[in-house]
Each structure stands twice: as C-alpha cells, then as structure tokens.
Amino acid sequence: MTNSAAGKPNLGRFGSFGRGVTPEQAKEIEALGYGAVWVGGSPPAELEWVEPILEQTTTLQVATGIVNIWTASADAVAESFHRIDSAYPGRFLLGIGVGHREAHAEYRRPYEALTRYLDRLDRHGVPANRRVVAALGPRVLTLSAQRGAGAHPYLTTPEHTAQARQLIGPAAFLAPEHKVVLTTDTDRARQVGRKALDIYFNLANYRNNWKRLGFSDDDITRPGSDRLVDALVAYGTPDAVAARLRQHLDAGADHVAVQVLTGVTSWSRRWPHSPGRLAWHPTLNEEPYDRRGFPQTRPWPVRRVARHPLHRRRPRRAD
C-alpha cells in the first residue's frame, strides 16, 4: 500500500526478511502482525513466486531484497511487476540493486548501469513510488530518493539509518534490514551472527560502508570483532531486541526488515508474538552463498504464471 499523504510505501513498522518463503509461511507472518515479507537472494526476473504468496494472504505486502540488475532483465522485471500489480494492486514493492563486484563478471560502472536500469523501468511504466534501491553510500542513497521511493540498506546500523535519513530527506522511504538472534546467551548469539556474516567480509561494498561507520580494519576482518557483530546482530531479551530495532525507527526509518537467524533447521516459537511490541517470526535464514558471495541455490519457490493479457511487452530499445 502507498501512503497517499506522503507518497511513500506503507509497509508497517516491521517486516520479515528471509529467503524461500512459502505461501503457508507468509500466512503465519501476516497473522503475527508483520506488514511485509522481504525475499532476498537475488530472485529471477520473472518473480513467479510472488503471486502465490499474495493469493494466500490478505494485506501482507511482498518486497524483493533485491532483484539484481546484472542477472535480471529490466524488461522482464517490468513485465512481472505489471502482472503482479494488476492482480494485487499496491501489494508488491520492487527492490533492485547492483550486487557486488566480487560476484558478477559484468560488474562495470555500477552507478551508470543502475541509472540505465531505472531508465528502462521508467519506459515500461514501473512507478517510482513502488520501487526501492539497495543503497549504502551517499551517491546511491541520493539516487534512491530521486529515482525511486527510497532506499533499502542491508547489513547496517541505526547510525547509518540516521545518516541516510539526513541525506535523502523526510519524504523518501527508508527500510533498513537488521539481523536478530533469539537468545540471551551472548556467546551463542555471536556464534550464529558470525556464521551469517561470514560471506560479507569478502565484499567491498559492505567493508567500505562499515569503515564509513567508524569500524577499523581489525573490526571488519573475518571473523569480525565483537563490536562489529553486536552492532549488526541484535540479541538478548525480547525487550532488548525490540529496543535495538526501534533505534532504526527513532533514527528515521519508516520500516525495519527483520532477519531472524536461528542457526538451526527448525522454526522456533519461544518468543511473544505481540505486534504491539514486535512480531517475531524466526524463519530459517541460512545464507545460500559460498565464501565469495556467489549464489549456490535458487531457494525461492517457483510457479508458472500466465502472462497478464493486458500487459504487452514493449520493444527493446538501445540504451
């Protein structure tokens, strides 16, 4: 849904971030009070898994976190967007991003490639207020507000959220992701957190952002200092974790995408499911990447969906 007064998406205060979410899991996420489910892992351009989730829920929104511009054609993504939005108006938010130099041989001049991708989405009529951009640094954060609804920063801190809000202004949408481990055992929380963070130490985009936030080379060297892990992964009592996530809201976030790390293969229901405080949905979030950041699997569910008859593919234009 879009907030008509502010012109920005309204996903509620908290969403659930995961990979391979099924329609049944989405129903439970909605019942727990989440406003949105964010699906990561660079899903393919066809986005055929979105409709089953929206079909099985009533108000839950689906957001991509994110579609990768190097692997997903803007033409196909735009077609998918219009098909989904026609069937479920206002319930799909398109998140796009440039990914990482270490994972894509095509990675050249990413800022210019991103602007061209946005140009093509414009030509296909994808509304700016229904798309967000994965952004960490000042240049892309600014672009996210100029060419989209706003930004979806990943693996950041409330301090970064405050800086981002100051940069993009009050009218832009800001939805950071934050990881959570549901335990009061500090050693266990850091162990699970380090496992989830491990692949990111090789990725320059994240390392550079952590340095901008004041972390040292020692902090950001694998396996990461306690200071870094504690900044990126919330843990403790429900009240302590909720307070940590609310720091993003206090810093200017409109919405926080909560990625709960379990470190096990079963779902946990140990924590209060009170949307008024924070709705917990500890889905399994094992990272489907190798140590270089390359996807190992296609974890999202896929279903064949017929092309919407009213949507016509536009002819490809040369950039």
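The record above closes out task 2.4. Task 2.5 opens with a second protein, given below.
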Amino acid sequence: LLSMVMVVVMVETMSSMMATGDIVGKKVDAKMLRNGLNTCGIATTICGFFNLFPYAAFAQNVGLIGLTGVRSRFVVSVSGIILILMGVFSRMAALVVLIPKPILGGAGIVMFGMVAVSGIRTLGQVNYRNNNNGMVVALTLGLGMMPVLVPNLFTQFPPMVQLFLHSGITIGTLTAIVANLTLNGSVPFRVNHETPVPDPAPPSSAARNMAVRTVRMWLLLRKVQKERQPEEAQEG
C-alpha cells in the first residue's frame, strides 16, 4: 500500500526537481533525478522509525525560488534548521501565527502561480507532433482535476479506495502513466499523423563536377559578352 503512495510521491519529487532546474537554468539529468529519489527514499525510511508521514517534495518552494530569485543551497539548509527548531520549540512556531492572513494569502497566490507557470513552460517543451502526447496531457489534466471540481465524486467508494482517489495528483499520475504506455509505448496503438520524409541523398562527385563546370562556363560567357560590348559600341 505504501509503495503505491511512494510512486506518487516520487513522481511529484521528479516534477519539482525538473521545475527547479528549469527556473535556475540548470539541466537536470538522470543522475540528479536518481540522487534526488534516493534521498527521498532514505528520508521516508527515517520517518518510519519516528512514526511520521512519508517525505514529499514541497512544490510551493519551486514557486518561491522563482519569486525571490534565491537559489543558494545554504539558504535552504538554514531554512530547514529553522523549521526543525520551530517543530521542537512551540514558542518559535507561534511567531508564524502572528503573520497576517492577507499577507500569507497574497504570497500564496504568487507562489502557486509561479508553480503553474513552470508547469506550463515544461509542457511547452513537449513534442506534440507524430505522437499522442496531446491526448496524454488532455486525459491527465481532465481526470486530475476531477477531485477538485467534484469533491463528492468518490464518496460512495470504500475508504481504502478514497484514500488514493481523493488526491488529483494520484489520479493524474496514474492516468499519465497508463495513457502514455497505451498511446505511445505500445506499437499497435501508435498513430503517425505524418509520413516521414527520407533525407535527400547527398550529390555525387560527378554531379558536383558538372555543376562547377556549368558555373565556370557561364562566368566565361559573361566575360566574353562584357568584352564585346565596347567593341560593338565603337563600330556603331
């Protein structure tokens, strides 16, 4: 059961890492993704010893990086230490409560907007030609928004099923995986919207020599015509 939850958590972690790399202008390769997922798994294992919830990436931090422009890992480490101290000492956590809600709401709107912009930018880099990526994105967005648009849609399902279906991230992730494997990953379901055009063959050496001779002959004729024009003018 927890393995299915971790699949969703890791998909969210990968998307946050790729969005962060896009904001800071650094390409995220397979090694970085692997190290990030390993860190996520180790953190989740440690949480299990303390009877805590699994570790998950906080996607709002992606918007916070784009909003403030602060990209230093030192700042992130110090912020983590501050959060740990706030969890241990309730007096420090009480300071957060003093922040006015309009300020939190305004910052939240901008942060969530930055996350949405980063996602739109990532989708804009997807190749939608000669494949069914457009259908995959449409199904993922449509089904992923169902729990938000219709909150009571899964109330008649068993509690164990509701645990997975109440989140749009879970439905969207499963839909994206299944749709991509069905529409793009299996040969019988692939659809080629355009017939691939083979690359033209490079010209042979004989054709190149013929072209060079033709150009030289044309230049020679032009030179002869220019030399004859003054002579014809004098005779006239």
